[in-house]
Amino acid sequence: MSDLSDTPLLDEIDRALVRATQAGLPLTAQPYRALGERIGISADEVMLRLTRMLEAGMIRRIGAVPNHYALGYHANGMSVWDVADEQVDALGRQIGALECVSHCYLRPRRLPQWRYNLFAMLHGHDRAEVQAQVARIVTMLGAACRAHTVLFSTRILKKTGLRI
Amino acid sequence: MDEPDRRIVNSMQTGFPICERPFLEVAGSLGISEDELITRIDALLAAGVLTRFGPLFQIERMGGAFSLCALKIPEPDYERVAAIVNSRSEVAHNYARDHEYNMWFVLATERPEQIEQVIEQIACATGYEVLNLPKQREYFVGLNLHV
Fold it and tell me: What is the share, in percent, of chain B residues with pLDDT greater than 70?
């Protein structure tokens, strides 16, 4: 009996490729060739496999991740909202479309400790800029929002990306 | 950061090409040489302006799982707990935030059932209850920070 959930999405070569790139791409003129040499496949096969993973959404993008603080975005606020369940999908999409929002997710409530189900990550040069973004979202959510708060980050304790 | 650095940071947040000489292709559009682009990316990484350069994996699409977790830690115990949490390879990033829940980290595991196991181990090693808030729906992801 076959069980689709047991079908590996990545073969051993894909996994070797993920491991070889999770710390970053080699900074050489031919990075994909260098990766191939490291794991014993051709540059063409590296490019083919990465393209396939991009198309399948396994890779969101290839690029650089900036450090917000270093770029002058000193205020990083995780805004959290207690939004009526029947309206959260429509409102979540609207909030996610705002230019200041980098991530917008629905997450479970954990009552009584945690009442907020909508998360929107906000970025500004200072806290006042983020508070102005929050005020705008308050208006957009209207009566559908029963409570909200903003958790500003005070320190990056770790930022490595995933490791398998 | 000078003007070429700013252009690099802005342009490198969108897709980096998959081709034989990708730096050459990007360098052409930025009006600098391939060598200069590589040297500048290296320097931006070393200076911490860029935290990473490479493929950004979406582990759910590879059969794995992510979860956002939070801890409520008394200040005197904060560094001990941060060291325990950060030592786990499954912790992709970890932020201190000014709230009763003052430590927020993202777990990434190869298989969904490992999330619960890692949470239990972290709870056991730190002595604090972990708030587990897995993503249920994604409304938006992506942002270019312009500099």
Answer: 97
A81 vs A133: CA distance, rounded Å = 13
CA gap B57, B37 in Å, rounded: 24
Distance CA A21, CA A36 (A): 11
pLDDT exceeds 50 at position B21: yes
Domains of chain A: 11-55 (1.10.10), 69-152 (3.30.70.3460)
Give the residue on B whose Cα is nearest the Cα of A59.
B57
Q: Across the interface, which of A30, A43, A105 has its CB nearest the CB of B138?
A: A105
Q: What is the DSSP letter of A150?
A: E
> CB–CB of A50 and B18 under 8 A?
yes
What pLDDT score does B144 carry?
A: 60
Condensed to tens digits (0 to 9), the pLDDT of residues A79-105 reads 999 999 999 999 999 999 998 898 999
A39 in B contact zone (CB under 8 Å): no
Ordered by where they begin, the domains of chain B are 3-46 (no CATH), 59-133 (3.30.70.3460)
CB neighbourhood size of A99 (10 A): 9
Chain A contact probe: residue of B25, B51, B128 with most A CBs at under 10 A: B51
Residues 49-68 of A with CB under 8 A from B: 50-51, 53-54, 56-68
Chain B neighbors of A20, CB-CB under 8 A: none
Q: What type of residue sits at position A148? A: H
- Residues B101, B74 contacting (CB under 8 angstroms): no
What's the pLDDT tens digit per position in A117-129? 999 999 999 999 9
* Contact state of B9 with A71 under an 8 Å Cβ cutoff: yes
Q: What is the pLDDT of residues A29-52, one digit of tens each?
A: 999 999 999 999 999 999 999 999
